Amino acid sequence: MEDTRQLRDAFDAANEFLYPVLNKERIQNFRGDSLIDILDRTLPADYCHDDTPRSRVVQRTLALLSSIHDAFVAESTDPVPAKRVLGKQQDQALEDAKRRRALHALLDLLSFEGIYPSLSSGVGIPLEKRVISVLPAGVIAKNATKASDSTPQYTRILDCIIGSLSHILQDARPSIQPIILGRILPDLVCGTAELAFNSKDLPSHKIDSYKRLLNDIIDKCSTPSLLPVLSSLLQESTAPWFKACISSQLSQIPLRKDGVFQIILFLASQFAPTLGQSTKDPSAGGPPITVQAIMQSSRLLSLVPQGSTPEEYFSNVAPKLLALLDGEDPDMKKTSSYVIGNGILGKRAYGSPGAIGFIIFAQPILDTFHGKISQPVTTWMRPFSLDGSADPEIKTGDFDGIIIVPECKLLLALERLTALATLHPSPGLLKRLVNPALLPLWGLQCYAKEHQKRSLEEKVSTLLQMFFSVSASITRLVKLADNILWDGPEAWVYGAGEEGGVSIRKRENREPCGPNILSIIQNLDGRVDSFLQLLAADPQKEEFVGDVFLHVSRQWLFSESMGEDGGCPQPHREQDKLQPELRKLVSAKIAEKLLDQFKESLSRHPIKVLELIRQLIESEKNRASTLRTNAQGSESISLQALGSIVEAESAVGSDPDSNITGVSESLSPAFSLLSTILASPDFQVSDSISLILRNLKFDIDYLLPRLPSALVQPATTSSMLLEITLSDPDQRQTKPTLTFPGISDLESHRQAINNIFSPLAPVQAEGLSTLSQLIDKASPVLDIPATLTLLLSVLTASDESAATDEFLYLNVIKLIGSLASKHPRTVIKTLAERYADRSEESTLDQRLKIGEALLRTIQNLGGALVGDAARVLGDVMIEVASRRGIKLKAKDQRGKGIKKSPPAKNSEELNQNITKLMNQINEDVDSETEDPVKEAYFSRIIHAWEAGATTDTAPDDLRARASAISILASAIQTNLAGLGPALASSSIDLAISTLTLESDEGSAILRRAAVILLLDLIKALDEARESGKDLGFGLSVTATSSSIYPASHQSGSERTTIGNVPDILRALNFVESRETDTIVRGHLRALIESLEAWLEKSLLWGIRTQQSLMEQPRFELGDRLAGLDIHPLSSTEKYGRTGEHPRIEEIE
Question: What is the DSSP letter of 498?
Fold first, then answer.
């Protein structure tokens, strides 16, 4: 089927106009002419004859685009039968290669010769970074002259281009709009912004129309195509007004339906994993998300755009973040968790109670656990889609209004709380979210445990253990001990869910009955065990065990004096009669299990326990004294209460001894604990403890004749131990206190180690924070080699979660740097040996992480990188970077891999397409399917990295060698004087050898690093020279025939020469002449120019040196030349005074 005549004529006119520049033979006739000059000759003489050649060409190009647009639009106005046929022709026309090429050429012509030169300075993308044009490269200026300001000429051309294109873009009928936006979108944005915000000659109504046009262009673009364009327009040299304009548009992108998701994907693609990092999990829908990408996403998504209030912005963004938080993708969950927890809740303006961020993200979770169906719960505690729309809620029966919080909402609240608290290391956020819901979470865990809901119990238990691992507070432990039977407030209770889970229901009002109490007693052991697990997770459990024991023991043994409201749990308010007995029972059970499981801890912190024992024995002594004088009985308190629910025995008799027998059974644990403490080898007597022991000895001796036979032996043993302890001369020595700073540090160190090896990120972060505090204050409990080994084991952990969590290993690297500032030699030597990996025990990824730690250590040390530490570092880096490394195990593994893999292609065959392939890569051409040639090239490069130098028998991985060169360059830039002349000379030797010998295409990363090494060396030498610092060594500007890099002394000088600039330049020029890698060539050109500048500056340094020498006293020959009657110093003051002038006399 043929095209319409109008469409053919439009493209024929365009091809005729572009023929002189698109035809390879015709273009030869215009050699040396510009693109504008060539095209202007093809135009009639009377065509816009009053305008400049540029304006004439631009107007003709716009006319051709308008005619093509009109031709496509005309097809859509034909009758319906013809429209269908011509619609097919339209698709074929748009996809036709020749016509697409003509359209691209017209658009490129407008971009390069119309829009780009009309932009002011600091606007747009540099030409060298733009997409390659279909126009001939020989007639396109690489550095087109841009408008310095908004001159009328440039404004008129730009106004003409943008105005004409806007008519096409704003036409609702389909035409060439997608091609225009896809080809010159950056130029359209820049040109429209120039007219809208930086134009001085346009009327206000036009400026307003261009502002609307800019918003319309951006709104029509898809988010994936818009993000790269806008981000590429933000450069260091961008004009402030243009940067504000683009930043404002970027800040509006999260408000799009797919804005949040696309921003995260875009940033993930920009911050790719570091060299050597594993990316073995391609299961996710996008690229792996690094810590840098997560942090950048948090900064961008938590920034409220101008013109929006926080309420409007976060109400739009929150559903999209919650959808990612509730999703299945682990990277997206982690990113959204960090954005919410750190970017929003972590800021006081948004995350404090009552602020919009807290109302949206935190309050619904807390209200759900407290059984409150508030407005935030109704609005936000529901599933959302990625576009921010709310998913329909599942209808569940309310069971006649019994269910307050359905199972789905309770489970969703728990999942969100777990994700926010555990997916990134923020102990502070964990405390803020869990502490207000501590009792509901405790009750939920106990209910799930008692009803065999293992999955739910594990989730809540993990959350609570994490909370107590990072939160050291006795009040929280006492709160749980007082509410250990808590199953809900008076209004509600946990119950069965609609789908077999857990829901929150209204509490039924019923009379107390026996089976309910029996179930409480049966579950008491399990609840106490769960409580002790949380106590064991507390970082200060050694101190808190005694406090908890003291608290529950007082409730158990002195409950009568504490009253009815002593703080014990009240599972059902209608059972008030049983509250005192339940209080005793619970407290006794906790005290009993504490004695069983934490006896050693109690003996190490005895003063509180001794005070409790003293109060107990003193109470019994007073009771015995009262019974003897008044012959009255009292209610008994005995350990037998543990075996029954209620034991109310009122023993009021006339025999005092019978009452003593009953009440004194409470003394049995006291005597046992006292004997344990006194017999402990770690027990020490201080002044305060000595006073307590004396009072105990007096009270026990008083009670001993009145105790029943079962307690006589324990009491006698305790009395004898007290006498021995008080009379022991060693114990009588001055020991003022049982605690000293080392004990606190030791406990902190122990807890830090436990937390570091926890699988939970916030707990690990808390452990690293504690260890950092110990390092900063140089605690004596730290064993430096052991601490460094611990950190390295975490850094190189084989566990997948620990190895890939950048939040963890980046913090470990920071700690290693802090440790190195205290002990540089030990840390540098250990890191360098582990980095060299002579025994081949580490993977490449582990070695590169150790390299990152070395880099951080060098940066932290700065000027302290001297002596043995600098020497060891330099020697090892040069050893790894050179070909001295022998990796036999790696060679064997490569051999096994080669046997399994199919034979590789011939090297010459693969090299045939390299030039073409690199051009494709530089053009940054997007394609839906990966080019097989490109895949083969990349595979070959990676294999070359792994194989190492081809001429060596067992070479090291090229990536490790490149990393070693980079570390050495950083050390040189940090403190060249500390490394010394020998290492500086060896570095030049290493760099030149690498550039000349490592010429394979796979070794390009080595050559890049080698050039950077030389650049850093030159920069360090130059900075030292400019600052007047004498290094004692430097470069020679005189060529020698012996070596490029001799470490020798110059004659007549104490300065050591580490290299000769002319010889180095000759080697670099030779390398540049054969270099094929564009990046290396660019670095080499910069290095050569730097060395040439060094030669020129050396002349100035020489003049400066001579001037300083002239100021010193000299033995001169005088001012007159012997034998000649002339005065060479005519400008001296002598001749100035006499008025004489020099004369030139001719002598025969």
Answer: T
Q: Is 1068 helix (H, G, I), strand (E, B) or coil?
A: helix
Please, are residues 358 and 432 in contact by the beta-carbon 8 Å criterion? no
Phi, psi for residue 622 in degrees, rounded to 5: -65, -40
Percent of the chain with pLDDT strictly greater than 70: 72
The rounded distance, in Å, linking the Cα atoms of 374 and 138 is 70
CA distance 835 to 872: 12
User: Which ranges constitute the DSSP H helices of 381-513?
Assistant: 407-422, 427-434, 438-450, 454-470, 474-482
Give the 3-state secondary structure percentages of the chain, helix then strand then coil, rounded to 5. Answer: 65, 5, 30
Please give the span between the terminal C-alpha atoms of the chain, in angstroms, as a whole number.
104
Which two tokens mark 228? 């790269």
Whether residue 1069 is predicted with pLDDT greater than 60 in this model: the reply is yes
What phi, psi does 131 have (nearest 5°)?
-65, 145
Structure token digits, residue 572: 């059902």
Question: Which residue type is seen at 230?
Answer: L
| Signed CA dihedral, 213, 217, 223, 228: sign only | negative
**Do 233 and 193 touch, CB atoms closer than 8 A?**
no
Could you tell me the two tokens for 262? 């696309």
Type of residue found at 41? R
d(CA 18, CA 188): 22
- Edge-to-edge order in the sheet of strand 1048-1049: 1033-1036, 1056-1060, 1048-1049
| 502-506: strand order across its sheet | 403-405, 502-506, 492-496
Q: pTM value?
A: 0.73
Dist CA 1028 CA 1034 (whole Å): 13
Question: pLDDT band for position 635 (50/70/90)?
Answer: very low
Spatial CB neighbours of 143, under 8 Å, sequence gap ≥ 6: 127
Helices (H), 998-1060: 1004-1026
Beta strands in 76-166 (DSSP E): none
Residue listed under structure tokens 């975490």: 794
Closest CA to 233 of 125, 318, 137, 157: 125
3-class SS string, 566-613: CCCCCCCHHHHHHHHHHHHHHHHHHHHHHHHHCHHHHHHCHHHHHHHH
Spatial CA neighbour of 216 closest among 171, 170, 262: 170
SS3 494: strand
Query: Which tens digit of pLDDT belongs to each residue from 215-242?
Result: 999 998 999 999 999 998 888 888 899 9
Q: Which two tokens stand for residue 396?
A: 């569940």
Q: What average pLDDT does the segment 597-601 reach?
A: 77
CB neighbour burial string for 420-450, b if at least 16 within 10 angstroms, e if fewer? bbbbbbbbebbbbbbebbbbbbbbbbbbbbb
Nearest CA among 1074, 941, 1072 for reference residue 1004: 941
Answer whether residue 182 shows pLDDT above 90.
Answer: no
CA atoms within 13 A on the CB side of 319: 19
Specify whether the CB–CB gap between 1094 and 1035 falls below 8 A.
yes
Give Cβ neighbours of residue 87 (< 8 Å, ≥ 6 apart): 75
Residue located via tokens 């004409």: 164
Tokens 């097989």, residue located: 932
Backbone angles phi, psi at 123, to 5 degrees: -125, 130
Instruction: Quickly count: other Cβ atoms within 10 Å of residue 167's Cβ.
Output: 11
Residue 21 and residue 39 in contact, taking contact as beta carbons nearer than 8 Å = yes
Cα dihedral across residues 463, 465, 471, 473: positive or negative: positive
Residue pLDDT, tens place only, 271-309: 866 444 444 444 445 567 888 889 899 999 999 998 889
Q: Evaluate whether 858 touches 832 at the Cβ level (below 8 Å).
A: no
| Helix spans in 51-79 (H) | 53-76
- Residue 185 and residue 221 in contact, taking contact as beta carbons nearer than 8 Å: yes
Measured distance CA(842)–CA(366) in Å, rounded:
46
Query: Of all helices (H) and strands (E), which one includes residue 493?
Result: strand 492-496
Cβ atoms 544, 535 nearer than 8 A: yes
